[in-house]
Write a structure and sequence with these properties.
Layout (H helix, E strand, L loop, with lengths): L7 H17 L10 E4 L4 H13 L3 E2 L5 E3 L5 E7 L2 H69 L6
Antiparallel strand pairs: 1-4, 2-4, 3-4
Helix pairs in contact: 1-3
């Protein structure tokens, strides 16, 4: 029986993977990421917003800005969130990963308990059935001996 146990190494590995995904995924994937996507409605607003965000601690990303539109063009760009924000989000991610990992271990343990309990019940049923059959065979053998004795016959086994 392999009892599921908490492993700090496994947790650290899962957190490292989640942090890597946080750092390298684009926000378009619908997950929490270090990058934030901005889509202002004009080039002027894009430039103002970019400058404002840079002053607030956002840093440039490797994702190339995209210019859209012909009549009223606008720019889509990505910036890394400020380090303090990233640190807070990484802590939340680590806590979420740990909670999910511990819940997974708990679920595996509950499943193991159910399986082992069912096996135990089945084993007891088989033992009880074997004991019942042995009792019936012993009773039948005793009844045969009694009948044979009553008929004055000797056992030939």
């Amino acid at each position: 029986m392999n009892i599921p146990e908490f492993s700090q190494a496994e947790l650290d590995s899962r957190i490292a993977i989640a942090h890597s995904e946080y750092e390298f995924n684009l926000p378009e994937f619908g997950t929490l990421t270090a990058l934030e996507k901005f889509m202002p409605d004009s080039i002027a607003h894009s430039l103002e917003l970019y400058a404002e965000k840079r002053k607030a601690g956002y840093t440039p990303s490797e994702v190339q800005p995209m210019i859209y539109g012909t009549v009223t063009p606008w720019i889509e760009f990505h910036l890394y969130k400020p380090q303090k924000t990233q640190d807070k989000e990484r802590a939340v991610i680590a806590a979420d990963v740990e909670a999910a990992y511990r819940a997974e271990i708990d679920a595996q343990l509950k499943q193991l308990i159910e399986i082992e309990a069912a096996r135990s019940v089945e084993r007891k049923k088989r033992e009880q059935e074997a004991a019942r059959i042995a009792r019936e065979e012993a009773e039948l053998a005793e009844a045969r001996r009694e009948v044979m004795a009553a008929l004055g016959l000797q056992e030939t086994e």
